[in-house]
Amino acid sequence: MKSLKEKLEARLIPGENDCLEWTGYRNRDGYGQIQVDGKKLLAHRVAWMLHSGEMPSLLVCHTCDNPRCCNVEHLYVGTHTDNMKDKVDRGRWKGGAKSKVGAVMVLCMREMRSQGLSNRQIGKFLGLSREPVRRFLLGICEVRETSTQP
Ligand SMILES: [Zn+2]
């Protein structure tokens, strides 16, 4: 019987920008899906799990905007988002959705949307209210808001 790692790697091919693209089944958001013990898991999360040795409780986001990519170099967990939230909180983040950090933030938001979170839930996670999240996802936002602590 094949190990999970072998199962994953058998379906990966090198793509552009060092991406490792999942060639198996993909869900409607374009994320690779892998069957493990009858459960459907997202391929990039499995890749992360194999890399880090634990199932991430937080989101696993892509820096490459390629949902089927499973290159762990292109993945990061939600703690990275916390760093960004920190930047936003301290007002060091001046850029809007088009800035580099903004772009990563948008990717993260999209990832969360694809996992079924509402704008309000995403906002809560990032310390923003719903409106900037919505605008961010539309790519029209300049975030000036500071976090309201719960
Ligand atoms: Zn990639």
Question: Helices and strands in order, then pairings?
Answer:
Layout (H helix, E strand, L loop, with lengths): L3 H6 L2 E3 L5 E3 L10 E4 L2 E4 H10 L7 E3 L12 E3 L1 H11 L10 H15 L4 H8 L3 H8 L13
Antiparallel strand pairs: 1-2, 3-4, 5-6
Structure report:
By secondary structure, the chain is α+β, with helices and mostly antiparallel strands. The strands form 3 sheets. Strands 1-2 form a two-stranded antiparallel sheet. Strands 3-4 form a two-stranded antiparallel sheet. A two-stranded antiparallel ribbon has the order 5-6. The C terminus is likely disordered. The chain is elongated. It folds into 2 domains: 74 residues, no CATH class; 59 residues, Arc Repressor Mutant, subunit A. It is 39% helix and 13% strand. A hairpin with a 5-residue loop joins strand 1 and strand 2. The chain is built from 6 helices and 6 strands; from the N terminus they run αββββαββαααα. The structure holds zinc ion. The site of zinc ion has 6 residues, from loops.
